Amino acid sequence: MSVGAAAKCGVHIFGIRHLSPAGAIHLIEFLNETKPQLVLVEGPSDATKLISQITLSGVKPPIAILAYTEQLPIRTVVFPLAEYSPEYQAFHWAAAHGAEARFIDLPSDVSVSLHASRRAAVRVEKENAREFYQQSNERYKKVAALAGEPDYDTYWERHFEHMTSYNAYRNAIHAFSHEMRQLSESEERMHTPLESAHNEIREAYMRTRIAEAIASGVSADRIVVVTGAYHASALQADHALMTKSEEASLPSVPTKLTLMPYSYYKLSTHSGYGAGNLAPSYFELAWQCAKDRDTEKLPSLYLASIAGHMRASGNFRSAASVIEAVRLAESLASLHGGRLPTLQDLHDAAITCLGYGELSNVADALARTDIGTAIGSLPEGVSQTPIQDDLNRNLKLLKLEKYKTTVATDLELDLRENRRVKSEEAAFLDLRRSFFLERLQLLAISFAQKRAVRQDGATWAEIWVLRWTPEAEIEVVESIMKGETIELAAAFFIKESLSQCKNTLQAAELVKAAWHCGLPSSMEDARQMLQELAIDAGDYAQVARTLRELSLLVQFGDVRKMDTAILVPLLEQLFLRGTLLLVDSAACSDDAAVEMSSAIIDMHAVAQQHYDVVDDVRWITQLEELAYRDDRNAKLSGLAFALLLERSLIDNERLAREVSRRLSPGIPADIGAGWFEGLSLRNRYVLLSRRQLWEQLNHYTASLDDEQFRRSLVFLRRALAAFEPREKNAIAELLGDVWGFGALESADALQRPLTGEEQQKLEELNEFDFGDL
Amino acid sequence: MDKKQTILRQPAELLYAHELEALKAHDKAEKPAGWQLSPRSVLNFIIGGQAGEVAITPKYIGHTRLVEIAIATLLTDRALLLIGEPGTAKSWLSENLTAAIHGDSSKVIQGTAGTSEEQVRYSWNYAMLLANGPTEEALVKSPIYRAMEAGGISRFEEISRCASEVQDALISILSEKTISVPELGKDVPAERGFSIIATANTRDRGVNDMSAALKRRFNIVVLPAPSDLETEVSIVRKRVSEIAANYRLGEAVPEEEAIRKVVTIFRELRGGMTLDGKEKLKQPSGAISTAEAISLLINSMALASSFGDGLVAEEDLAAGLLGAVVKDEAKDDSVWKEYLENVMKKRGAEWRGLYRACRELSS
């Protein structure tokens, strides 16, 4: 028989709504009745090879078929299946009855690329499309309103999910979809031509696959086609098939397919299409009841499980209340002429009888019962990418399997050797876990998130938050582009980033990343890159921050059992570079001085930490030069002076001389007060203990004319803002003493509450705009 | 004059007698035991619709689903408890439900701090009790007692105002569905159709908590304030014109514009925010309900007809507004003044007159 002739023969078409328990149960009955030899299912035709794996005994839904492109940018298409998906049940029926099952929709190569181009074009026709979707939504709402139901989902549940006979279900859904399609088809063609064209292409492709199957010798009445109800009429009708050349001209990008575990939470967030989506866990209960031929049980089961959740969280609800809730739900259903309560009826009954009228009392239990935390699983080796296998292997090896749940769990790690266990493997279990989790984090796989820990001077404790989501699974699959295992992928990622790395700081961060991930060879690569970049490094601030990163690595290197001594020569070399850059770089604007000052402080800390390695003497000399130069940024000179003062390299007499030189009358305010600001960045106690300094400051400010005084206020205010209240009090006392009020009296005055007049004066000052200066 | 016309306030079953007749005549569906209408028709009576030629006016606007839950509750012979802030139409709904289901909304217990257990169960005519001892004739039956005998619905208003022990007298009535009279040595079992609709305030002074045991015996429906401006305006308009007709206040019902202004002010102060959500407001200490907006407008109409030219002027509204918002002189006064200056003053020309009138009164 030719393909064209075959198309004329009628096959059995069973329209469904995806994720519909009633659809699943009626489909099974229909299959039992018609006993087909071939079951054709709407879904990517290249995924047919996965069907045999979907029906394996170790597979626990929800799962999803994931198609992903191998080239950048990575695009994915997900096809989720729950236990109550009619498609899923169709596969099981076929497997159990020796029938063949096949997918017949566009292969993922094509659908991924069509999807992408459609998305790009949607922006253009957005306005039209929005209007069309609104209209079509209105239409569904109107159907619900005419039936006296609050929303379309409830309408659907009461009028389709609750149907008992499969023939009635099949006919009703066909008729309903056909009518709805008739109403919207021409408008769709006008307002969203792409969407409409996409449907045409898919339907032509599916018709061709059906015709091919018939042509291959299977008699038409032994074929059952399972498809979304919307397509049912188009697949039956005598429409054109797709020619070979048309098929070849479809756009396509190479994709790969895999199965992945899915979660009910994820299913529930993709609302809008398919019945069970908003409350997957509820629909699973419905499926269980339907399978046991006991749909009347569902209200009791559902409401009892809500009461169970409430009891578990400490709110006791009696069985009597559950009974009343079931009765209320049933009488609400009867008010609408329904046989069974819908989810909406059950919700309202739960709120009224179990929540004492308040949604907030039952909201948590409702979410748990509607959505649940169920997550699917696949047996090892089932159609996974090597990187997924590697991940599972690692989770097992590192005893992390129990963290693979949708509930976020904390994991505390102690990286030090555990001396109570025998094998070395066990002794460093936490360290190896940390390496593994760091690699995941580097690859942006959202399973592991590191939480910041405040810990003084040690890095052996880490807290991780672990939470498994289907997104994480997708991210793992996407990482296959980078390598076959997690370790290889992480190394590849570092290598790739190194090639794009522009300055020493970025390179140092990659050294650190490699160190965190326990990848010695990557660390060596990064070190080399850092060394190359260091040759040309001329930005002081960047050098200083790089130094700080290196210093930490050298200091704490052995916590992670990694040899960081290789970094020491680099540290030495860069330190020298920094030292030499210091005085020149210090000729900068006040804005740049902010970054510079923290860089100087960083570098000083490195000098003290690694005094045995770096050239500390030269550093001090450079600081001294900066401190006494008048042509550098005054704030930085002040800071250099403060650092020297801190290391007791300046005696009292020199201090007095320098202060009076810097703060002598006639020095412009931004230089004098700026210097003081730099000075006060460090060791304030030393400053507070020197009365002479404050006398000098007082003398200096008094000598300024009005304009200069105003300018100096900006610097002084900034300098003093960093002091603690206690220290500010001490300054006030000191100044009081200088002005001859006596320290005690001024302290006393400070403690008195403000009078209204003073309050007002201070408030006026608050409005003083420093921005003008 | 017809007797019906002289009654100050007609019960729902008289006020809407023609609607109930029409519904009865067109009701084809099955009626539960003891009900005069089918549940569908009861719903129709409350939310409005059509019965043959007769238009059924909506009695409760905005929350159809809550009415469905209330009717379904009574179908399962459970007692119904309506909870809500003052003025959310709890009593109104309970009266109309009772009228629709049984045609008699008069079996009411009004809960107060002084309500005693006898008023809930039964008491005695003491003269007869002393003369003849305990006899049927000496028994004074409570509304609940009578409802049980007749298989009707008894209403218990403001149940949370009663002392806890009085509230708890209901527990045995609701679980056993009998009242025993040991003095006469008899038990009175409830006829089919018996139920209780109770109402309770959440936010008011002098309210006692309800025990968990009693709460468990009720299905509880919380009545919210109207969900949006349009709903509230239509509720207020409908009730104002009904009451005005009843009280024979001769003048025209206030214009929609005035009603809209009052409802806007009430909604903003109740929500603590301007309707556009841009400005936060202080809230007054008392609840300002839809019911109060209705009585305010009726009041202004009375003022206008007695002392004015018969048309509701801004001054008439202003007096009512001040009284409704400022219940606690010390606190609410500043709330109202701030509202006047910060919100109303900036609203433009249509609000100018009302603003002036309000400011004159509160300065």
TrEMBL record, chain A:
Domain of life: Bacteria
Pfam families reported in the protein's UniProt record: DUF5682
InterPro entries for this protein: DUF5682
Record's protein name: Uncharacterized protein
Source species of the chain: Paenibacillus endophyticus
Automatic annotation (TrEMBL), chain B:
Organism placement in taxonomy: Bacteria, Bacillati, Bacillota, Bacilli, Bacillales
Domain of life: Bacteria
Gene Ontology MF annotations: ATP binding; ATP hydrolysis activity
SUPFAM superfamilies documented for this protein: P-loop containing nucleoside triphosphate hydrolases
InterPro entries in the cross-refs: ATPase_dyneun-rel_AAA (IPR011704), CbbQ/NirQ/NorQ/GpvN (IPR050764), P-loop_NTPase (IPR027417)
Species for this entry: Paenibacillus endophyticus
Protein name (database record): MoxR-like ATPase
Record domain ATPase dynein-related AAA: where: 80-218
